[in-house]
């Protein structure tokens, strides 16, 4: 391939981005022992070591194996261990048993990362535009796993009675309570939703396939809260018997509350009459001014019902956030304490907590999954899950945008998930 100065600049930019993303994963995992990085506390949460290896497998498989003639796998047995859900890539180790993988060791996984990093660096100047686009996708994929690595290690640590802190963290600066919720009115309108196709081979303008095609959606008159619900407000919901009154709950949600004895957000515990929460900085009293987090869709919906409101639709949310800066807000910049923070900066759409919407995660009109294995990335999960918007304190800055659609099952709450209220006008 002839190499133009523009190509050289694009290759260098991609190499820098690849290197920065890979370095952040290593930094997040740096405080972990091999044992910390191996344990798995529930089926949904993967060991940190597995995240480090699986993201590497993605680059090795789809870029090096498929795009570099003569490339030899680092270890031919490992794709079985580190393929997540790609049926097109064949059989794989069962997800609930990832915590059984005491071997390879953490050091061996880090050596795997170093070898694949070097091979990608060498290959970039020779790769096809399609292979370069897969590196860009792999960087986005690894950023998703960086957030999962943090939320998963939080869950692993939470089941240890010692409740270790990943980052002990600094003393908190007291912040004033936010005022009452303000409402941002939205009128009836036909709005354009979704992301257009990114330029081939470019990470600029990147969007996942599920964010398109762009299409029009009808909004009815509504209003969105100018901030998310706080811990203090959530404590009032608990004190009012919110978890004990079936009138607030969807039928599936009420069954979930009863079957699992749910009485508060995940990681909350009352000690001597004081509500505390467990975070990556250990167990501390809840900050009443900070956004509530680790609540399920069922809890978010019940809270909205309790206050006579509802959850936003994903289209109301996207239309309202379209003009906001997706690089703003409390998002992940580096390895260090991560938690939702009180903000006095006015309407913030990005960071702190993922916001549950009332919208089912389903394809937009005209959606087609990509050809090949990476076509399994999003489309096959469009069943039984709800869309969340806006990113969290554990989302790497630069990863989300107004059209970004995250998705989880309605009972799941180990991510940094919170609530923004909406109402009809
Ligand atoms: Fe993955």
Features of the shown structure:
425 residues, 4-stranded mixed beta sheet, binds fe (ii) ion, alpha+beta, 12 strands, 3-stranded antiparallel beta sheet, 12% strand
Q: What does this entry look like structurally?
A:
With 425 residues, the protein is α+β, with helices and mostly antiparallel strands. Helix 8 crosses helix 9. The model has no long low-confidence stretch (mean pLDDT 94). The site of fe (ii) ion has 4 residues, from helix 6.
Offer a quick outline of the entry.
With 425 residues, the protein is of the alpha+beta class. The chain contains ten helices and twelve strands.
Q: Strand-and-helix sequence, N→C? A: HHHHHHEEEEHHEEEHHEEEEE
Average pLDDT rating: 94
Cα radius of gyration in angstroms: 22 Å
Low-confidence blocks of residues: none
Helix content: 25-40%
Q: What characterizes the major β-sheet?
A: 4 strands, mixed
Number of helices: 10
Strand order of the largest sheet: 10-9-8-11
How much of the residues is beta strand, in percent?
5-15%
* Ends distance: 59 Å
Give the helices and strands, then pairings.
Layout: H1 5-29, H2 34-38, H3 48-67, H4 78-82, H5 106-123, H6 129-158, E1 183-186, E2 189-193, E3 215-219, E4 222-225, H7 231-239, H8 251-260, E5 268-271, E6 274-279, E7 282-285, H9 297-306, H10 314-321, E8 354-360, E9 386-389, E10 406-408, E11 417-418, E12 422-424
Parallel strand pairs: 8-11
Antiparallel strand pairs: 1-4, 2-3, 4-12, 5-6, 6-7, 8-9, 9-10
Residues 54, 84, 141, 145 line the site of fe (ii) ion.
């Amino acid at each position: 391939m002839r190499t133009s100065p523009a190509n050289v600049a694009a290759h260098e930019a991609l190499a820098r981005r690849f290197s920065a993303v890979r370095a952040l994963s290593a930094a997040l995992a740096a405080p972990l022992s091999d044992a910390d990085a191996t344990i798995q506390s529930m089926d949904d949460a993967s060991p940190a070591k597995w995240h480090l290896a699986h993201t590497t497998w993605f680059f090795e498989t789809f870029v090096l194996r498929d795009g570099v003639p003569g490339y030899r796998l680092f270890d031919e047995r490992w794709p079985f261990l580190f393929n997540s859900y790609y049926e097109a890539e064949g059989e794989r180790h069962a997800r609930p048993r990832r915590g059984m993988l005491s071997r390879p060791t953490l050091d061996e996984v880090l050596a795997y990362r170093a070898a694949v990093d070097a091979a990608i660096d060498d290959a970039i100047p020779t790769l096809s535009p399609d292979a370069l686009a897969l590196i860009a996708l792999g960087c986005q994929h690894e950023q998703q796993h960086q957030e999962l690595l943090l939320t998963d290690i939080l869950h692993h640590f939470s089941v240890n009675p010692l409740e270790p802190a990943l980052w002990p963290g600094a003393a908190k600066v007291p912040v004033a309570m936010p005022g009452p919720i303000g409402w941002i009115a939205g009128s009836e309108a036909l709005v354009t939703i979704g992301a257009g196709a990114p330029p081939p081979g470019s990470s600029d303008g990147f969007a996942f396939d599920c964010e398109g095609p762009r299409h029009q959606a009808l909004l009815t008159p509504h209003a969105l809260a100018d901030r998310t619900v706080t811990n203090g407000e959530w404590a009032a919901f608990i004190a009012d018997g919110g978890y004990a009154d079936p009138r607030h709950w969807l039928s599936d949600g009420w069954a979930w509350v009863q079957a699992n004895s749910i009485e508060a957000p995940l990681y909350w515990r009352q000690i001597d009459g004081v509500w505390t929460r467990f975070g990556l900085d250990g167990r501390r009293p809840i900050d009443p001014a900070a956004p509530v987090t680790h609540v399920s869709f069922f809890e978010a919906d019940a809270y909205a019902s309790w206050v006579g409101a509802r959850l936003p639709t994903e289209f109301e949310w996207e239309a309202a956030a379209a003009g906001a800066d997706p690089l703003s807000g409390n998002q992940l910049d580096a390895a260090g304490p991560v938690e939702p923070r009180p903000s006095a900066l006015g309407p913030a759409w990005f960071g702190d907590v993922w916001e549950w919407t009332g919208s089912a995660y389903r394809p937009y009109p005209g959606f087609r999954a990509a050809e090949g294995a990476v076509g399994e990335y999003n489309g096959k999960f469009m069943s039984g899950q709800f869309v969340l918007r806006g990113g969290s304190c554990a989302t790497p800055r630069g990863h989300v945008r107004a059209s970004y659609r995250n998705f989880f099952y309605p009972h799941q709450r180990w991510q940094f998930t919170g609530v923004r209220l909406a109402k009809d006008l």
